[in-house]
Amino acid sequence: MRELGYVEGQNLVVEYRWADGDTARLPALAAELVRLRVDVLVAATNPAVLAARQATSTIPIVFAASSDPVGTGLVASLAHPGGNVTGLSLVAPELSGKRLQLLRETLPQLARVALLWNAGDPGMADRVTETKAAARQLGVTLHVEWVRDLAGLDRAFATLAQARPDAFLTTVEPFTGDHRQRIVAFAAQQRLPAMYEERDFVDAGGLMAYGPNLAANYRRAATYVDKILKGAKPANLPVEQPTKFELVINLKTAKALGLTIPQSVLVRADEVIR
């Protein structure tokens, strides 16, 4: 926003609300912002956007990282959103197959993969469906574990420890993101090569991540806010799909797992942590 000419406290006031990973708090927080009569609501992931839309049908809403905005009913179509909601899509479902393919290239003998996902986020269902389809195409057996809370995460860990898959996938949204240290630690403890959707997991010690550059998405979201403040209608602003993707690999984690990353995968990495 600064690059677009806005200075907080001068021509811009930002009201921040954070649910600390507890999606049950989102409706009340969204309603609170609506009562403040803000000009634009900015929300990141599907639960936050859905809460914002439930709170208002008139205040423009910009999402920065929505999973499947059409399938979850946030917009009528990418080209013509309609209503008061628009923003940036993660194109996450389409990327699920690519992540599994990268795992297969890294582990040629891959036969059984576990997928951990948060069933409390409606945007995650398509990722599960796409991953199942990719697994069938690659001839890989997929073991799916869903969670909604910490008790569910502990249950999933216990089940996966017994199932002993060859590798591990995790969808990323506020809940799994907030508990990435626990998830990464579990994968390390079980000596599971793991593929994630965001580089934060690799920075925390995870093996690999492939997905959109989230920082770029948030920067683009600022341009939507700018256009709306200058009079544009969300209904007329097409939803953008990310154009920048990054593959990040942690070689320190690979070494700890006794795993050699094939050169064919390494040369495609945007960043390698050594």
Description:
The protein has eleven helices and ten strands. The strands form two sheets. Strands 5-4-6-7-8-9-10 form a seven-stranded mixed beta sheet, with helices on both faces. A three-stranded parallel beta sheet has the order 1-2-3. Helix 2 (46-55) links the parallel strand 1 and strand 2. With 274 residues, the protein is of the alpha/beta class. The two termini are 34 Å apart. The protein is elongated. Helix 3 packs parallel to helix 4. Helices cover 40% and strands 18% of the residues. It folds into two domains: 23-90 and 213-244, Response regulator (Rossmann fold, 3-Layer(aba) Sandwich); 92-212 and 246-273, Rossmann fold (3-Layer(aba) Sandwich). The model has no long low-confidence stretch (mean pLDDT 92). The longest helix is centred in the last third of the chain and has 16 residues, at 214-229.
- Spatial ordering of strands, largest sheet: 5-4-6-7-8-9-10
CATH class label of the largest domain: Alpha Beta
Structural class, from secondary structure content?
alpha/beta
Taking all Cα atoms into account, the compactness measure Rg is 19 Å
Architecture per CATH nomenclature, i.e. the level-2 architecture of the largest domain: 3-Layer(aba) Sandwich
Query: Helix fraction?
Result: 25-40%
